[in-house]
Design goal:
- With 124 residues, the protein is an alpha+beta fold.
- It has 2 domains: 1-79, Argininosuccinate synthetase, chain A, domain 2, CATH 3.90.1260.10; 80-124, no CATH class.
- 56% of the residues lie in helices and 12% in strands.
- The protein is built from 5 helices and 2 strands; from the N terminus they run αααββαα.
- A two-stranded antiparallel ribbon has the order 1-2.
- A hairpin with a 2-residue loop joins β1 (57-63) and β2 (66-73).
- α2 runs antiparallel to α3 (38-51).
- The longest helix has 24 residues, at 96-119.
- The radius of gyration is 23 Å and the shape is extended.
Length: 124
């Protein structure tokens, strides 16, 4: 569990997803006896590459047989407090949200406009 917590802090989401898919492929390769295959070697190289920045510290809380992660830090962390807040002095450009909202909302807006056109009585 500890390395997964640090991975989540230092690895972009798309690489985490790819790693998960390749882990399943790796298991199939090993199960099928293809240890010496070029595919296994390529997956090993990928895994070594993305593990280079998996380094840091996690803080755990132990209580009555339970173990919880209560803090994580790494010099390679992808989290930036200045981008994650709406406080004075942050570094996030809030005007960027307008375009993001417009693009992600476009399919819903298009559907609503289409439904209105279909529901409107035909003009003579």
């Amino acid at each position: 569990m500890p390395s997964i917590e640090i991975e989540g802090l230092v690895t972009p989401k798309d690489l985490q997803r790819l790693k998960q898919r390749l882990s399943q492929e790796y298991a199939d390769i090993v199960y099928n006896g293809l240890w010496f295959s070029a595919t296994r070697t390529a997956i090993d190289a990928f895994m070594q590459n993305i593990q280079q920045k998996v380094s840091g510290t996690i803080r755990l809380k132990l209580f009555k047989g339970d173990c919880r992660v209560v803090g994580r830090k790494s010099p390679f962390a992808l989290y930036d407090q200045g981008l994650a807040t709406y406080e004075e002095g942050n570094t996030f450009d809030h005007t960027a949200a307008e375009g993001f909202i417009k693009i992600w909302g476009l399919p819903v807006e298009t559907e609503a406009n289409s439904a209105r056109r279909q529901a409107a009585p035909a003009s003579k």
